[in-house]
Structure formats: C-alpha cells, structure tokens
Amino acid sequence: MLTISREADYATRLIVHMAVSTPQRLQAKTLAEAERIPESFLFKILQLLMRHRLVRSYRGVYGGYQLAMDPAKLTLYRLLEIVEGPIGLNVCVASGIGCELSAGCGVHDVWVVAQAQLRQTLESVTVAELAQRTLEKRRILAARTGDSGRLQRQEGARP
Asked: What is the pTM of this model?
C-alpha cells in the first residue's frame, strides 16, 4: 500500500492545528492531546518543523509553539516534502533523472501522468485553506452535537 508516513501525517495535523489557533502559542501537551500524537514523537516533529522555520518555540510561562510563517504561503506539497523528502510514486519518476527503462516501458507514461497529478493536487491547497476547511467541519459537527462552546474554545475564543 502506498501511504504517507505517520510523521508526515502528524506534522500536517500539527501545522493545520496551529493555523486554526493562530496567533495563540500552544503548549506541547495541548498539541499532543488535541491531535492524538505521542509526546515523544511530537517533540521530534516540532524540532523538524522548527529547523525548517515553519514553527517557532517560546520559553517561559507564556511559552509554547506557534506558526512562524504565513499558512497561505505553505502548500501541502511543500510541507510533505519537508517531512518526507522528495515525493514520488516510484523511483523512475521521483528522482528527476529519468528511468533507463522508460523508452521501452508501457507503464512509465502512466507513472509520469499520475506523478504530475499528485503533485498538482498537493500544490493546489495551502495550509490556510486546510485550516479553513477544518473550521468549517468543526462548525458543522458542533451544530449537529450542540457543542458550540467546545468549538469556540478550539478556535481560541471564549465560550
């Protein structure tokens, strides 16, 4: 099965969570609980995101973690690329070098098209758009369950 790593999934959820909570500083424990990420794994991901200047950390009583970039300027493709490295369906289209078998391989052309579509899809959405979609889904869920106070707390407002 072709899947994105757990680390990339967690990193995406963390960044979107921070985008929803902007401009709040969030404690690691709060992030871990909200996104159901083991704290030990969370710190590894936060370190990676800080190294790439996507997240900033603050020390002290009012410390925590916060987005360090404009979520409208970060695509899902770029975020996944930061965590995963080059994204490719297989070696012959991921490396950029090409494949020595491509001239005689009937599958190669399909891989090239699929790779281009995957990249286009992931580049077509920003973290800001994902944050907006998340808020919309939470509003719908809150309306169904009658829990608008919880939604307001998640958005950083007071109930």
From this structure: 0.83
